[in-house]
Prior knowledge:
By secondary structure, this protein is an alpha+beta fold. Helices cover about 35% and strands about 20% of the residues.
Amino acid sequence: ELMRCWENIHRLWQAEAHLRALLFREETRWPGYYYRADFPELDEKNWHVFVNCRWDPQSGEWAMNKQEILPLRRLS
């Protein structure tokens, strides 16, 4: 019972983190990802990045940031 309770708490934290990342990203990612009516265009110049978030239990704040996507080198 306690393990199921912790699983649900962690699922709620994950859901909140996911929604905050979606709202942080000011663009539409399509097809098949998500659509934002307030930002209907795909913006590769500014948003071809990973979005990360971090919860700070001390302040009760979420920190959002962008992380550059690094190209992979092909091993020969």
